[in-house]
Amino acid sequence: MEIKDSNWYLKTLIKAGLFDYGPVKGTIVFKPYGYRIWEKIQKYVDGEFKKLSIANAYFPLFIPESFLKKEKQHLEGFSPEVAIVTFAGGEELEERLIVRPTSETIIYHFFSQWVKSYRDLPLLINQWSNVVRWEKRPFPFLRNTEFLWQEGHTAHTSHQEAVKFALKILEIYQKIYQEILGIYGYAGKKSKNEKFAGAKDTYTYEILLPDGKALQGCTSHDLGQNFSKAFEVKFQDQKGQVKYVWQTSFGITTRTIGALSWVHGDNRGLVFPPTVSPYQIVIVPIYSKEKNNKTVYNKINFYIERMKKIISDYEFIIDQSEHTPGYKFNEWDLKGVPLRIEIGKKEVEQEKLTIFRRDKQQRLMMTLEELENNLSFLLKEIQVNLYTKSKEFTEKNTRFVKSYEEFKKVIFVNKGFVKAFWCEQEKCEFKIKEETKATTRCLPLNSEKSSGRCIYCKQKAENIWLFAQSY
Amino acid sequence: MEIKDSNWYLKTLIKAGLFDYGPVKGTIVFKPYGYRIWEKIQKYVDGEFKKLSIANAYFPLFIPESFLKKEKQHLEGFSPEVAIVTFAGGEELEERLIVRPTSETIIYHFFSQWVKSYRDLPLLINQWSNVVRWEKRPFPFLRNTEFLWQEGHTAHTSHQEAVKFALKILEIYQKIYQEILGIYGYAGKKSKNEKFAGAKDTYTYEILLPDGKALQGCTSHDLGQNFSKAFEVKFQDQKGQVKYVWQTSFGITTRTIGALSWVHGDNRGLVFPPTVSPYQIVIVPIYSKEKNNKTVYNKINFYIERMKKIISDYEFIIDQSEHTPGYKFNEWDLKGVPLRIEIGKKEVEQEKLTIFRRDKQQRLMMTLEELENNLSFLLKEIQVNLYTKSKEFTEKNTRFVKSYEEFKKVIFVNKGFVKAFWCEQEKCEFKIKEETKATTRCLPLNSEKSSGRCIYCKQKAENIWLFAQSY
Q: Residue A289's pLDDT is what?
């Protein structure tokens, strides 16, 4: 494993200006540099959702406690971690209000009013919002007490259509992770024990963090008819029969910011893929000593003006601060901007710019014309390179084991993902978790059925599951 | 006054699908058709803010009660209307948590850590979020218990710079109201009694609703050093001296959706200006009876395909539902889409489309080519027409009065805005409010000083203020 442990993570993300700790335990401030990443992720996700005709809406933050009690598994799953409003407007409230940890209950209360006929289906709704879950062991971005997310909620006429939709969403999330965030991972189905409280099935994209622990990247749930029965969401089908709808819900959160930062970072700081970096390019003029040499000073500025036209399609920043070039280089290394253009006396004399590739820590000299011709390709190459590294790291740290001894050795010594036969009985899953802190992460999609023995109980097993310790 | 009273408002906005009442008193669901308007307003405001280099960030929802107590006026202003979390994670909390009614206190707690030197200034931050204020008499969109908004927060080296910034923001809000929402109003300064709790001065844009009551459209505050002193937000100036920063805060909310709907609506429903309408164009194919006449049916579809290319730069919707044309016309009248294109047998035979202008309830026939040439102009004309109507209505209902008798007559009979001399003493303002329910709305900007007598106490007065009953 790399040296990028949780200390590296916490120190680097604070220093780079992604967050600050909030006054209430487990809360954070999403500082502007970190929030820009979220805005980009939002834009991509929202664009993909709009293509599927999912409509945005906004539902109340406060959920009456009685709503949460309507679906038993859901209540059991969420009640230990909710925050509760008991006073408002100077008075004690008659009914306590739950600050939403997720909005299935309140949204389906409305679905039951909005859906009457098969003509109203599918109903495809999304909400961008904050949610609150009282975490016992909070961790910035990955496990915040309050986080930002989108939560999608849909209703369909058939189970088949709902499952297809849940998997379509998983595909979008996978695309976001792979093509935008540059993070390799495994798409799969959660075990019964690890699925969302109230879901029939939960689909996930599981990624590996540099410290060897797994992270659930997002979830897409097949809710079956659990909630439609609890909230009476019914429709009249084409034959006039009244039926319960089939539902899905799905979410991706600001934990993506933490994952992104941790996966690609290196010993000098953050390394962002161009598609999601707050800026793609930073220009560092080096004229601290040249201010007296007007000719050079003017030439540098002239180059910057010409450069601006070439890079106008990208988000760039020009660092005109009074710091030394060395300080600025360190600062932008830390902040992870993929391309840095350095321009000083040397560059002006050679009529070439110094281009610094953050991912390979590599300097290239090129003319303005070469920059213009190569810029788009260069940024694409950085994007691909980061994804490839993430894929190699994850695959290298995914080990198939045949015995429980081997399993424990990998979990405790190598860390990372373990692939192993499991009989799918909860008692084995529970014992493994108790003894190794490793949990089932998912049954990867499209994995072929084969035949083996459960690593724990040695009974017959049909599927190879992915295990890991996790956040 | 028009017949568009509060009953019209509530019925029309529900029927048009803008909102539903939430289960907790004073909360609403922003339904997709209403939320689309908010997304458009967000986009415009965010774009204007980015031009001023205001950076988005996100601060925690929960504010420790002790923070609110640091600025006295602020505490007094907000404590009657806050919601309070007392339980979380299964336990009673040691310190009660306020669900943010606004975020000055928590944001300036961080400003005090982020600002050290004049080099860190101006600090320009914005947050898009939900806030909670426990309203005694809630009213959908205009006075929700939970609403959505942006809240901007800045810190500057001088009072002059802060005031200039607050006024620049007011100018942006005024532009949003006039050019985007098509709503005329008065930009001005609030009285001491009506300003934001904790501000030195509050600037506002006051508009008139069709029932004759005023609405505060937005606010931009000169906070002076009230909060910087309470939260120790200090900087070292260029001479090395340590000083408190000068601050502003400002916000525009989802109440804009309610204002927009009410101001432009008519006896058939909503009428949206093109810039902010969820859709600019709706196409209603009329072929219910033509399904057996394949030639006409195909021709209609052929026209629609050609039309799609012409209107591809706009947001349009094609109503292919099974309802009758009459039903659809009523529905889209209600929903306020500015242009409707009707295409049936008659249109195909004449090789012309029927274009229905929602604002004037006027039908025009034009060829595809004429549509292409006139579309952009037509939409601009609708935008201008709605603004002009709003301006005329507001000006007609703004009356200068010379006596308190006249004042009361206007407030009770005519309603609308009243312009009158006021001595600027709180006791007169209070008496007027007590006796007429009218409050000072603002001292319009750029109003010239003149000389008169306070309509209440008849003492000398230098300024003509705007009064009205309000939401």
A: 64
- pLDDT tens-digit map of B115-128: 999 999 999 999 99
Q: How confident is the model at residue B294 (pLDDT cuts 50, 70, 90)?
A: confident
Q: Do A39 and B62 touch (CB under 8 A)?
A: no
Task: Identify whether the C-beta of residue A106 lies closer than 8 Å to the C-beta of residue B24.
Answer: no
Cβ-defined contact of B88 to A85 (cutoff 8 Å): no
What is the average pLDDT value for chain A, to the nearest integer?
96
Q: B389 vs chain A: nearest CA distance in angstroms?
A: 31
ipTM for the assembly: 0.96
**Residues linked to residue A186 through DSSP beta bridges, in sequence order:** A206
A380–chain B nearest CA distance, Å: 27
With a CB cutoff of 8 Å and minimum separation 6, the contacts of B272 are B37, B260, B261, B264, B278, B336, B337, B338
Q: What is the pLDDT, as a whole number, of residue A2?
A: 54
User: Among A24, A30, A119, whose Cβ lies nearest the Cβ of B58?
Assistant: A30
